[in-house]
Design brief:
Strand content: 25-35%
Bound molecules: copper (II) ion
Helix content: 10-25%
Shape: elongated
Structural class: alpha/beta
Distance between the termini: 100 Å
Oligomer: single chain
Low-confidence stretches: 1-25
Number of strands: 23
Length: 466
């Protein structure tokens, strides 16, 4: 610090006090924070000194899509769920302006877990629709922190999407990496069940029971999959800033096919290495880093796995580049495994069926039989899977003699067969269906997917059994 003669100091002090009506002179340069929407992260901070950082964030209530065909009224910071990513440096003085859009029905505020002070700023930032509140804080502790709305009923504001991440970089900065991304998990509670179409209102009773309909990354099912996937190239280093807004569930965060080289446990200073799955508490965060060594699609999940495959907690990282066969070979062979003494297994399924009276009814009932018994192997449209499951669509094998299909279901089928000039040599288990179900499912298949039509009766199936 420069030494200033005492008289000049008093003079200067009085002048600044007069001009800014503050008691302390801030020597810091002022800059405006760069905010980003998920999954992007603002650029690394490359100053070696503190600054005064001005942040302007807006709360808004707006309709968005939570899943295909399902709408939800999200409450957001910066029009996204999670809200804008905020990046500052340890020692920065932050001047925070929170504006609540005039169209809002609710007041909102912000509790930043990076704040040292009552409510994390909640009371100071309580803002009615059409108003802006201002407060300041100093970022004393480095780390990755959740921020969220804390207006009553707090759970409801969080459940509607009011959370995001603020990164306070340590004074020395973070090690440079090739890619940085922003992912936050959240659980949602709707009047309708998962996937029920239309505008779905928030369900307070389910939220209290912690009975989530949706568990998603970045605000919706599929927000970060397929064409919206995160991307990287083989050999690059990836850093994910991962948060969990909750309101209720704890995340068992995992990337299928990757091992975290480093986890900044709970977003703090503690670094763990070679981690498969890291816990991210509701209202918490973690930084995970890994090098992507091989190409492919890597799936980010909450490893409470029904949440991933049945409630939406699934995102993708697509890695492009050369195969690295020393590290991962891909499938090298697929041979039939028939240990000695093994017979075709029978899948037991002996529920009583409703009798179909017409061919149309047979087709309709047969579709249900198909979906719960055959689809897993022969696929949704009977297209099969190359070199594993033959197609039922346009199957010359089946159309030539539908009763051979009946035989396959009754007794199972193994050994080489030819379907549309392709040889399959695999095993279909006996299905343990009753005669009606078999008649219906074959009739369903015969009358779909380009097959030649026809009908198989219960009596024909019974005769085949003998
Ligand atoms: Cu709120």
């Amino acid at each position: 610090m420069k030494v200033i003669p005492i008289t000049r100091f008093i003079c200067l002090f009085a002048l600044i006090g007069f001009l800014s009506n503050s008691t302390q002179a801030s020597e810091l340069k002022t800059e405006k924070a760069i905010l980003t929407a998920p999954p992007m992260v603002p650029p690394a901070i490359n100053r070696d000194h503190s600054a005064k950082v001005v942040i302007k964030l807006e709360t808004k209530e707006q309709i968005g899509s939570i899943a295909d065909g399902v709408d939800y009224v999200f409450w957001s910071f910066g029009e996204t769920v999670p809200g804008s990513f905020i990046r500052v440096r340890e020692g920065d003085e932050i001047e925070f302006h929170l504006s609540n859009h005039p169209s809002s029905k609710m007041p909102h505020n912000i509790d930043l877990h990076a704040v040292t002070g009552p409510g994390g700023g909640a009371e100071s930032s309580f803002t009615a629709p059409g108003h802006t509140s201002t407060f300041s804080f100093k970022a004393l502790n480095p780390g990755l922190y959740i921020y969220h709305c804390a207006t009553a009923p707090v759970g409801m504001h969080i459940a509607n999407g009011m959370y995001g991440l603020i990164l306070v970089e340590p004074e020395g900065g973070l090690k440079p990496v090739d890619r940085e991304y922003y992912v936050v998990q959240g659980d949602f509670y709707t009047k309708g069940e998962f996937g029920e179409a239309g505008l779905q209102p928030f369900d307070m009773a389910k939220a209290i029971d912690e009975d989530a309909d949706y568990v998603v990354f970045n605000g919706s099912v599929g927000s970060t999959t397929n064409e919206n996937a995160l991307t990287a190239k083989v050999g690059e280093t990836v850093r994910l800033y991962v948060g969990n807004g909750g309101p209720n569930l704890v995340s068992s965060f995992h990337v299928i096919g990757e091992i975290f080289d480093t986890v900044y446990v709970e977003g703090g200073d503690l670094k763990n290495h070679n981690v498969q799955t890291t816990l991210i508490p509701a209202g918490g965060a973690a930084i995970v880093e890994f090098k992507v060594d091989v190409p492919g699609t890597f799936i980010l999940v909450d490893h409470s796995i029904f949440r991933a495959f049945n409630k939406g907690a699934l995102a993708m990282l697509k890695v492009e580049g050369e195969e690295q066969e020393k590290i991962f070979s891909g499938k090298q062979a697929d041979n039939v495994y028939l240990p000695e003494g093994s017979a075709i297994q029978s899948l037991d399924n002996t529920h009583t069926a409703v009798t179909a009276k017409t061919k149309d009814e047979q087709v309709r009932f047969g579709q249900r039989v198909y979906e719960s018994n055959c689809m897993a192997c022969h696929q949704a449209n009977g297209q099969g899977i190359p070199s594993a499951f033959p197609p039922l669509a346009k199957s010359d094998y089946l159309n030539a003699n539908p009763l051979l299909g009946v035989d396959a279901i009754i007794k199972g089928l193994s050994g080489p067969i030819k379907v549309n000039n392709v040889t399959y040599n695999s095993v279909m288990p006996a299905m343990g269906l009753n005669d009606q179900d078999i008649a219906n499912v074959i009739t369903f298949v015969l009358n779909n997917w380009g097959n030649e039509g026809g009908q198989v009766s219960t009596e024909q199936v019974a005769a085949r059994r003998k």
